Amino acid sequence: MNAVTPTAPQPITDAEVKAALDLAVAQIRRNLPAFTYACQNHSSVGNFYPAVENTQWTAGFWPGEIWLAFEHTGDKVFQHAAQIQVQSFLHRIENRIETDHHDMGFLYSPSCIAAWKLVGDEDGRKAAILAADQLIERFQPIGQFIQAWGRKGVAEEYRYIIDCLLNLPLLYWASRETGDAKYHDIALLHARTTLANSVRPDNSTYHTFYMDPVTGAPVRGATKQGYKDDSFWARGQAWGIAGMALSYRYEPIDEYRKTFDRLLDFYLKKLPADLVPYWDLVFSEKDGEPRDSSSASIVACGLLEMADLVEADVAARYRELARRMMKSLSEHHAVKDPAMSNGLVLNGTYSKKSPYNTCRGEGVDECVSWGDYYYMEALTRLSRAWSSYW
Ligand code: GLY
């Protein structure tokens, strides 16, 4: 792992972690009236999240924030609101509302698994198992992967994406809960397929990867949300780093650990001095492109996850690096004034249009709901021995 530059932010202190969490929790409390019976949009508009129905892939992050606020404070007002959200998630999966995609883990881990783990919410458990059932329906034995989007089996949609590594903990959890190995077995196969194909020789990653629906052979990497096919979408690299750490937790083989270090090394080499990446790592300061602060929070969580799994000296390095990233985020990107935003962290980028991708240009230089969630998760991991929702 490369040393960070001498001008990098100092590691965040324990007192600063607590202050940042207090600030975030106060904002979440202010948001409860607007977002107890509604969801936050995937990203803010002019730094304010609109309220939306529970139909997006991102809906799980807001209840995840509420659960983290509950853990930080013990205040039952958060439990009450988060359990109302659980009912909406149960309804969504029972009626299969906008569930024809792979993002069941992003939806159901921070909302419903959290509810089951923290307060024994039986409906949370039921909903999460139904979500795991839906997710394994997308498994393609020919090629051994979970198909991300679109009609199953169609050649032009026959692909997985690196982000899906974060959907797999739902499956590991479902096998532990039900005693049925089928979920776990599919998760392991998908993670191995990602390991085999998604990392380029220079340690960057492909966002999406196509497989051959007849032979199952790897076909080609491509992007959807990065600048172009051969650039380095910052969040894809972050999902890869966090996903390798989680994969190593569930299957502790050296390849995941080595790949984690390779991906991290590439990511660090492309970072500006303040450790918050531009939305694609191909850019630098001179390009005037927006940041994606959410990538930094995701990587911090990946570092803190891996730190729990490795020997003490390596863990200390990962934790220090995560603390530096969190210092930068909390000092320069966190929302300090509710008049400016109803989110937690500014300067995220969801889906920036480029001449080479198919993005519509949403959530550019805005708060993004997973950015807020992972920011809180990283602070929580730094503040206590945290029992993961993933
Ligand atoms: N998983 C989609 C995204 O990170 O935007």
UniProtKB/TrEMBL annotation:
* Chain positions recorded as substrate binding sites: D103, D163, G221, T223, R235, W239, S351, S354
Could you tell me the keywords of this UniProt record?
A: Hydrolase, Plasmid
Where in the sequence is the signal peptide annotated? none
UniProt entry tagged with the keyword Hydrolase: yes
Q: Name one GO molecular function term.
A: chondroitin hydrolase activity
Q: Which residues form the active site?
A: D103 (nucleophile), D163 (proton donor)
Which Pfam family, giving just one, matches this sequence? Glyco_hydro_88
Any GO BP: polysaccharide catabolic process
Lineage: superkingdom: Bacteria
Gene3D superfamilies assigned to the protein according to its UniProt record, in alphabetical order: 1.50.10.10
Family to which the UniProt record says this protein belongs: Belongs to the glycosyl hydrolase 88 family.
The protein's name is Unsaturated glucuronyl hydrolase
